[in-house]
Write a structure and sequence with these properties.
Layout: H1 2-5, H2 7-32, E1 36-42, E2 47-54, H3 58-89, H4 111-118, H5 128-136, H6 147-167, E3 173-178, E4 182-184, E5 190-196, E6 200-202, E7 205-214, E8 223-225, E9 228-233, H7 247-271, E10 289-291, H8 301-309, E11 314-316, E12 323-329, E13 332-338, H9 350-365, E14 371-372, E15 376-379, E16 382-385, E17 390-393, E18 396-404, H10 412-439, E19 441-445, E20 451-455, E21 460-468, E22 487-491, H11 492-502, H12 505-515, H13 525-538, H14 570-585, H15 593-604, H16 608-625, E23 635-640, E24 648-654, H17 659-674, E25 686-694, E26 702-710, H18 717-727
Parallel strand pairs: 18-21, 21-22, 24-25
Antiparallel strand pairs: 1-2, 2-7, 3-6, 3-9, 4-8, 5-7, 10-13, 11-12, 12-13, 14-17, 15-16, 17-18, 19-20, 23-24, 25-26
Helix pairs in contact: 2-3, 2-7, 3-7, 6-7, 9-11, 14-16, 17-18
């Protein structure tokens, strides 16, 4: 299970085992070479001692020390990887506040030290259950009277002590534990006294026993056996508690403690319902949008000019290992890489792994709140699954069916036949699910593990059939299949392209509803996207909706952006995602979860082309209001009006969060909502406001407050006058 959820941590754990094994092999080689011996020395008065000796050289000690250091480093790396991979895995559920800060497993010998490490944001992004696990196994915690927990704490305590000793210059040595030293004599000698020495480090030689003989005279033969167990040791930080407490067993206990922590992390992660971050493989490029003049393909000026002057402004790089599109935009010609589909989770059956990857991609680049996981319900004596999942954003949704080729591909004709059959079966399944959903409300669990009611009768449904195939036949023409709802067939790679391009669940679902049918050839969804994006860029803006005319600046942006979302300002675009995550993760009463789901859908409908601008306004606003004096309050606002019967979205930044500023923000939203009255029917309208306020306690960078107004607020004349005086008076 560790390898399934924490592959990098598992590799570090294996490396630690290997380093320990190497130390054991080196030690056995020394023993076989006879490096350990013993001698006896007897003095004239009959006293003497037994010595254990080792043929030990600095190079050998250095080699052992380096292997020991490697073992400890790998154990630390394993623990750190548990934190890193947990943050990555659940970043779709709990976004890190400071992504640039390092994440690591904090280990301290005091509560103050532990809290100091936490202030470095080392656990920012882990779930509460993982945090509790880390806190409870800290070395400074008192005895728990539970041997399993105390073994974890003891193991991590040794790891911490040994690491400090190594940093101080400590080296691996040999440890001598006298067990049964023996003096061998004959008459007339008698053994008057034999004192066994305490265990200790064996450098070159060490007294393991002292004795006194009766009737001794010089020349009488005296022999001895050291009767001493000699093992590897680490004097700095290793004092055995008994004969059985060897360094090897202690190191094994440390590795076992880390192993159990890793197993506990894996078990805890397995219990968490909902989506995880999509796996990122070595074939997934970080940079997908670059100036074509700087491409590794070295396009000529004539080639780029030809693309720019073509009818659709789009070209495909021939013989490229990764689908590479050359896209003409008003800002120049760019190269868009469409990465291979992300890796499947190797420990699941391929079909299940593909379904999981489809859900995780939608949760990673969209929001997990809108990913509805497959659910099973009874139908007569049997059971049936409601699709392979749904993506539902407000009043629009798509029914997902994933078809995976689980055996090795055969001939082109055979694979063509397989895909055709799978598409036909999937379309029937989509239509069956659509009929089922249109009949009644269905309870499903979303990617954040929350129970959500899907009101199928009022949802506008579409379908998507996703093909997972290791090598689909070239130029496969997608057959036209009758369907009661629009269905689009595409590769899993292209599903991930759409989400990675738009970073919005609402935008992807809207796109699928817009196109309504599949491309002619499987795998050409990215090309169709850019053809539509080019058409959007050239289209003239339509008439301004009279409900928003004259109410601020009007800005027209293409429905489909050419550049991937956030490529113009990744920090600003990510800020909008963080804001949505704050709202999604706020604890609310169960009866309000459904309302929040709808408000999140409305916020996610904010156009992709406006997100970076909004994010930059919020980031700059937070920085500016932090400079406000203690006797003043600063505000920044931005409102988005999308047209008649659409939710109004307002965003603000304030220098402080108090009951007074909360009431003032509420008044601002009520006023802006009321002002829609002369143009629209307020009883059917919703306005949503989000306010960010900076924090100074270091726990987090800001607080996020959301307020929604639905229907006519029925402001009194007095309230309206107060609100207008507060917010509409020129300053």
């Amino acid at each position: 299970m560790i390898r399934r959820f924490y592959p990098r941590a598992f590799e570090h754990l294996q490396a630690a085992h290997h380093a320990k094994s190497t130390m054991g092999s080196l030690w056995q080689t020394l023993l076989d070479a006879g490096c350990i011996d013993n001698t006896v020395t007897t003095y004239g008065d009959g006293s003497g001692h037994v010595l254990a000796q080792i043929d030990w050289n600095p190079v050998t000690r250095r080699d052992f020390t380096e292997q020991f250091r490697t073992c400890l480093d790998e154990l630390w790396a394993c623990l750190d990887s548990l934190v890193l991979e947990t943050v990555e895995m659940f970043s779709v559920r709990k976004r890190p506040r400071n992504p640039a800060r390092p994440r690591f497993f904090p280990l301290a010998d005091s509560l103050d030290g532990f809290e100091a490490l936490l202030e470095e944001s080392c656990l920012d992004g882990v779930l509460q259950l993982h945090f509790d696990m880390i806190r409870d196994c800290q070395p400074f915690q008192p005895s728990s009277n539970d041997q399993r927990i105390d073994a974890l704490r003891d193991g991590l305590r040794d790891l911490l002590v040994w690491q400090h000793a190594l940093e101080a210059g400590g080296q691996i040595g040999a440890w001598a534990t006298p067990v049964e030293p023996e003096v061998c004599i004959e008459d007339p000698l008698e053994l008057e006294r034999l004192e066994v020495s305490e265990p200790g480090e064996l450098n070159d030689e060490r007294v393991v026993a002292e004795f006194r003989l009766r009737n001794y005279s010089v020349g009488l033969p005296v022999a001895a056996q050291a009767g001493t167990y000699v093992d590897l040791g680490f004097a700095d930080g290793f004092i055995p508690a008994g004969v059985d407490d060897t360094f090897g067993r202690r190191l094994g206990a440390v590795i076992e403690a880390v192993l159990r922590i890793a197993a506990s992390f894996a078990w805890l992660s397995a219990q968490v319902p909902g989506s995880r971050r999509v796996l990122i493989g070595h074939n997934t490029q970080e940079t997908t949008w670059t100036d074509a003049t700087r491409s590794v393909h070295r396009w000529s000026e004539e080639e780029l000019a030809g693309i720019a002057s073509s009818d659709i402004g789009l070209g495909v790089a021939p013989q490229a290992k990764v689908l590479t599109l050359i896209v003409a935009t008003p800002d120049g010609v760019f190269e868009r890489l469409v990465p291979h589909a992300t890796p499947l989770r190797s420990h699941d059956r391929p079909g299940l792994a593909a379904e999981t990857a489809v859900q995780d991609a939608a949760a990673t680049w969209g929001l997990p709140d809108f990913v509805m996981l497959p659910t099973v319900e009874r139908k007569g004596p049997g059971v049936r699954e409601i699709s392979d999942g749904l993506i539902v954003v407000g009043e629009i949704g798509v029914i997902v069916q994933v078809k995976t080729r689980e055996t090795g591909p055969g001939t082109s004709a055979r694979e063509t036949s397989w895909i055709t059959k799978q598409i036909s079966a999937a379309v029937k399944q989509v239509n069956g699910t659509a009929r089922r959903l249109a009949a009644e409300t269905t309870e499903m669990v979303n990617g954040r593990g929350q129970s959500i009611r899907i009101h199928g009768p009022s949802t506008r449904w579409g379908g998507v059939v996703i093909i997972e195939h290791p090598d689909p036949p070239w130029n496969y023409e997608i057959p036209i299949t009758e369907s009661r709802i629009p269905v689009v067939v595409l590769l899993r790679r292209d599903w991930e392209f759409l989400f990675n391009q738009l970073h919005s669940s609402h935008a992807v679902v809207s796109y699928l509803h817009r196109v309504g049918v599949s491309t002619e050839v499987l795998g050409e969804e990215p090309q169709r996207y850019y053809e539509l994006a080019a058409a959007d860029a050239e289209a003239s803006p339509g008439p301004i909706d009279p409900t928003i005319q004259g109410r601020g600046d009007f800005r027209s942006v293409p429905l489909l952006p050419s550049a991937p979302a956030g490529s113009d300002d990744d920090e600003a675009h990510g800020m909008v995602r963080l804001m949505l995550e704050d709202i999604a993760n706020t604890h609310i009463e169960a009866e309000h979860v459904q309302d929040r789901q709808r408000f999140l859908a409305s916020l996610d409908s904010l156009h992709v082309g406006n997100r970076s601008e909004l994010g930059r306004m919020l980031l700059d606003g937070l920085q500016q209001v932090r400079l406000t004096g203690a006797d003043s309050i600063s505000w920044r606002f931005r409102t988005f009006l999308a047209g008649q019967n659409r939710d109004q979205l307002g965003f603000g930044v304030c220098s402080t969060l108090t009951e007074t500023t909360r009431l003032a923000f509420r008044a601002w939203l009520l006023l802006r909502h009321h002002e829609r009255g002369p143009r629209e029917n307020l009883s059917e309208l919703t306005s949503i406001g989000v306010l960010l306020t900076p924090r100074i306690d270091g726990h987090r960078d800001w607080d996020t407050t959301m307020i929604a107004v639905q229907g006519d607020p029925e402001l009194t004349e007095e309230e309206l006058q107060q609100y207008q005086q507060l917010w509409n008076t020129p300053r």
